[in-house]
Amino acid sequence: MKIAILGGTGNIGKGFALRWSQKHDIIIGSRDKERAKTKAAEYNKIMEKYGFDALSIKGIDNKNAAAESDIVVLAIRYSNVSSIIEQIKPVLKNQIIVSVVVPMEKDSCYMIPDRETIEIDTQFREYYKTNYFCYNNPPSGSAAEEIAALLPEGVSLVSAFHNVPAAKLADLDISLDYDIGVCGNDMNAKKVIFDLVRAIPDMNPVDVGPCETSLMVESLTPLLINIAVRNQRKDIGIKFVD
Ligand SMILES: NC(=O)c1ccc[n+]([C@@H]2O[C@H](COP(=O)([O-])OP(=O)(O)OC[C@H]3O[C@@H](n4cnc5c(N)ncnc54)[C@H](OP(=O)(O)O)[C@@H]3O)[C@@H](O)[C@H]2O)c1
């Protein structure tokens, strides 16, 4: 399959590109095609180090990346969603759109200061002893519902991967024994994404429900970060046990 990762130059996009490039054609999307090309070359080099010689990752602009793909992952911040969808809308036909978006912007969460002022990990942890991250509820309930409302008819949205820490996803030496909540209204599209979850070693997809349930999964991300910060843990994920 061809998978476009819009904003694939960023934190979470890198991990998806590396993990899926072993079995799929990956297209890194960016606002700047040169940046996309540079990142794609960097990711291919990493894959070569791990013994994969196929240069299956390429980089182009967001719109062309979406146009060429079967699956389009929105690896961008909540505040950039509407402008990116506006750009790619003309080329959307029957692709599956995947939202990993958590509305948790630093500027909209009044307790989070400018990251530049908190340079080292200890200061960061000290600050969050008295403060915490919060989920910033979008007007329509969740990022997924907001995105679904912007898509043309016939284009399915699947919401997943919200609780996966970017650093661990991009580290191919780490196996990710996490459950991944998957939400959406189109069961066939969800099954395709279940397989993409299973393509990452030890990850397990769990069906959470229709698009409206995405709020529950999205809002777990600030919870995980708060727990990590207060309990000297790092990059924690979710596993449901019977
Ligand atoms: N980081 C995590 O651990 C993590 C985990 C789970 C879910 N998520 C979710 O994944 C999404 C991306 O997070 P991230 O940490 O990867 O973000 P990020 O690195 O800050 O940004 C991702 C990409 O967004 C693009 N971008 C920046 N400003 C933009 C603008 N004004 N308009 C359009 N595109 C813009 C940039 O790509 P170009 O400059 O190349 O266009 C950038 O590389 C977020 O919604 C987040 O909630 C993140």
From TrEMBL:
Domain of life (superkingdom): Archaea
Gene Ontology cellular-component terms listed: plasma membrane
GO molecular-function term, one example from the UniProt record: cupric reductase (NADH) activity
GO biological process: copper ion import
Stored Pfam families: F420_oxidored (PF03807)
Keywords: Oxidoreductase
Domain (Pyrroline-5-carboxylate reductase catalytic N-terminal): residue spans on this chain: 2-103
Protein name per its UniProtKB record: Coenzyme F420:NADP oxidoreductase
